[in-house]
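Regression check, 6-O-phosphono-beta-D-fructofuranose case 324:
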Amino acid sequence: MMKRIAVFTSGGDAPGMNACVRAVVRTAVYHGIEVYGIMRGYSGMIKGEFVRLDSASVANTIQKGGTILKSARSQKFQTREGRQQAFDQLVNNGIEGLVAIGGNGTFTGASLFEEEFGIPTVGAPGTIDNDLYGTDYTIGYDTAVNTALEAIDKIRDTADSHDRCFFVEVMGRDSGYIAMPCAIGGGAEIVMIPETQMSTEAVVESLKSSWRRSKTSFIVVVAEGEEEGNAHTVAQRVKEAIPQLDTRVTIIGHIQRGGAPSAADRLLASQIGIAAVEGLLNGMHNVMAGIVDRKLVYTPFSDTINKKKLINQSFMRMVEILSV
Ligand code: F6P
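Current build output:
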């Protein structure tokens, strides 16, 4: 039975990370084991930035955005020397197991670290991108989509007033998971995501066709990983093809990463936090805890990292039908 574990957040922060840390801490306390927080992800692990956490340390945090443990993307942890230093710090502090809250990069590091040094690690999917295989939803995704959607609703108001075409870029790394519900929920005319090929020419044709049907304002949601280019590039090409179209670009950006987590994210984070600690205590390691079809599953890091979570292609058709 482990006596002491540690939890850290790493990579891009996501709303609900605090709810997950809280669940990890309280589950550890519930099972009578000590828990430490590692500040600034792998970077703090290397430097030995450990803080003892108890139930009170995470009071009043479930509703807070960001991460109380702070986050970082560590270059040094990518070196063998850095990982050796991190391992030495964990051993010196008597840490026997880890809960890693983060995304693909976090689990790539965790998997390598465990293979090299054997510290059992269970991952919690914390990223707004929802691009992790092994869970239907990641912690922070629901909040980020709602934040982006709120922005799109506001953009729609001004687009409509001025008869303009807005190209709205949303985050999501190399996936369209954020873009798709934003397009459907925001009533966008077009969505461009990396998972499907939609050429700029097709966008031009679609806008012309909408124009002929007397539409006067348009929203094109562009995922940041879109292969045709970013929102500025696409907007410029469209403007060249349809000079009379009054175009504007909005990059929603890091607003999507902040704010109080939604109810769905708080619930997911709490479920996963409990599952991560109980998984560790039951001998799980090198896996990510996730929810698939409403059931708790533990997926090997190797699958989480290497397998692609496919986006439902019928969503593209929904956008086409609903924007007619
Ligand atoms: O992974 C979360 C995310 O917000 C991505 O959507 C985006 O590509 C990236 O992080 C931005 O990273 P940074 O905050 O380092 O600019």
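Comparison notes: DSSP finds eleven helices and eleven strands in the chain. The mean pLDDT is 97. No diff flagged against the previous build.
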